[in-house]
Structure prediction request, 369 residues.
Amino acid sequence: MNIVWFSWKDINHPQAGGAEVVSDQIRVRLAADGHDVTLITARYPGSMAQEIVDRVDVRRVGGRYGVYVKARKLYKNSGLRADIVVDEMNTIPFMAPFYAKSTTNVLLTYQLARSVWFYQMIFPFSLIGYLVEPLYLRLIAKRYNAVLTESESTKAELQRYGFASDNIHVFRVGTEIQSPPELPEKLAGNTVLFLGALRPMKRPIDAIQAFEYARDSNKTLRLVLAGNDQDKYALRVIRYVAASRHREAIDLRGRVSSTEKRKLMQNADVSIVTSVKEGWGLIVTEANSQGTPAVAYDVDGLRDSVVDGKTGRLVTSGDVKSLGKAINELLSDKETYRALRKNAYEHSKQFTFENSYKDFATVLGINKP
Prediction:
């Protein structure tokens, strides 16, 4: 099959994240199985206009916003033939069905952005995004032959904007960090891990406040925060840590390598996740693979990746005191903690890139040539 895939970021883009990793792994497997795969994506400093990466023909045009117009032009003028067009929507769709008409059009979206606009964008752009997103979602709701997403939460959200339930398919997302052969041992019993970029929508200050409440009654606890700490908001987090009543027990690591990330997950006793929302919450599943259960907010994505009471604990979004209490309860009840660890470890094993590809291919009826 000839497959054309639109995405504003490829795996080598400086801003690439978990979604780009999953998409890349699916494309690589499609190409390895003999399909002709072309990725149309955005340029970035130092990038090539065209190159072959893992048998995928990567073509780059435009920047963060210009890519949408230039991708359409490239598709129409390049002579590309497509049996399937994948329109990967990262906030903004490529509107592929309006110009790729004689093919199967697929929408791939890991999450919708509406509740995040006011955390990540300044006014009035936040308000504009908040108001406009439902309009273009309703415009495209019936245009795609199939819609793929990573969680039941996002499926429900898509349905609210007019997408048909029977046309939305949830597929398993793979993780870069896989389970070791056996459940790892935990030694210290006092390490809380926050792993993620220090951005407003991740709410790292909520995580710190929850840790502070927990440590008020358990002085052995320590908190490790790891993730990108180079933007303006990160400075606010760093200042908060410096003024914290438990600053001596908080370790700011900044961005870490994949090897360091895995080691942190293995050594942590519980992970804490405080995002406004997620598409799935890969960080939960990755930590689970190392036998580390999560305490998280009950929001879209996290209520999918955390099986409450089985692989971790969920609390009301924004309730930092309940979050801190949940940490202490989890670590103090050894029998429950052991059960959660084992369940989390076993549950994580299904989230592989092979299963992502299998689910994706099954939905679209893609077979090996």
